[in-house]
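Exercise 7. Given the encoded structure of a 314-residue chain, write a plausible sequence.
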């Protein structure tokens, strides 16, 4: 972010201070106020309505305008021309994968979809009528008890393996929470299936019958998590650093905290505008869904982010 201008704040006692004005590629300019402490002052913005907590090269969101960019790519292009794992690769690595990188990434994710068999016992500690999101919080948080080898958030290798595990295991845990809630037996992941096909078979298959995911629903469902892949400056992500400040197992605890925040009825809504813009859900019967394989065009990388609300899709 560039700083070429300043704003001057003058107090009623005659004291004044110059505050840098920062400009990002996207979004409004922001005033850097960290020097206010020199005057013994703090700002008051309890809802974070006009406060940016960080600069970002990952995502930009403007919920009111229905704008969402990942690494400079408009969400409507990513939703139509990429799949969820490609977008995950983009967010983690800064660039869309080529064919070989995509295959290697998908294979690596599939290698981590299984959860430890002892995790099955966690579910029996919850009531059958517990909200699946509440169950998710407990089980996702428990992952840190099974992976002591990758808890150092300052270690790049630990961060990478933790990201792979979360990306691979959260669908498995989500499906298990759903199955426990509905009273059906758990279904194991199958490596021959795609990411979304695997989720659907774990959610809806039963041992007594064969299950083949509907390709139209697979494509539609593959697009929806793209919208939730990174929320950057939403109020839920702003609370995560507070939750994680003193936790050694901060990466997995933080993931659980985010899941909990998004479980309420308030989590929401403006993602529907992105869905409408991108045209990403199957609508009328026979409506064609664009195939994978087309590469989106990229906007210049950006350096600021703005608050945007979101809530669970129906």
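Solution.
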């Amino acid at each position: 972010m560039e700083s070429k201008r300043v704003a001057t704040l003058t107090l009623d006692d005659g004291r004044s201070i110059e505050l840098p004005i920062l400009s990002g590629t996207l979004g409004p300019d922001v005033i850097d106020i960290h020097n206010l402490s020199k005057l013994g002052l703090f700002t008051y913005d309890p809802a974070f309505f006009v406060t940016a907590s960080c600069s970002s090269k990952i995502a930009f969101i403007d919920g009111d305008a229905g704008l969402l960019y990942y690494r400079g790519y408009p969400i409507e292009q990513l939703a139509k021309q990429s799949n969820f794992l490609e977008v995950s690769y983009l967010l983690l690595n800064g660039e869309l994968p080529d064919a070989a990188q995509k295959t290697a990434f998908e294979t690596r994710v599939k290698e981590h979809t299984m959860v430890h068999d002892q995790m099955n016992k966690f579910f029996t500690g919850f009531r059958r009528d517990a909200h699946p999101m509440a169950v998710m919080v407990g089980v996702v948080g428990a992952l840190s008890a099974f992976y002591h080898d990758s808890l150092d958030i300052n270690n790049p290798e630990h961060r990478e393996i933790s990201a792979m595990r979360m990306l691979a295991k959260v669908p498995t845990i989500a499906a298990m929470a759903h199955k426990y809630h509905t009273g059906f037996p758990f279904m194991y992941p199958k490596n021959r299936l795609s990411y979304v096909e695997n989720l659907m078979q774990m959610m809806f298959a039963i041992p007594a019958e064969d299950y083949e995911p509907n390709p139209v629903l697979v494509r539609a469902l593959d697009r929806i998590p793209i919208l939730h892949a990174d929320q950057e400056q939403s109020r839920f992500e702003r609370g995560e650093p507070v939750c994680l400040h003193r936790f050694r197992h901060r990466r997995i605890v933080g993931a659980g905290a985010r899941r909990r925040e998004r479980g309420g009825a308030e989590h929401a809504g403006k993602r529907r505008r992105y869905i409408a813009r991108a045209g990403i859900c199957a609508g009328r019967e026979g409506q064609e869904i664009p195939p994978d394989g087309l590469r989106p065009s990229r906007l210049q990388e950006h350096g600021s982010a703005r608050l945007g609300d979101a809530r669970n899709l129906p």
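Remark. The beta strands are 2-10, 16-23, 30-31, 59-62, 67-70, 73-74. Students should compare their own answers with the one above.
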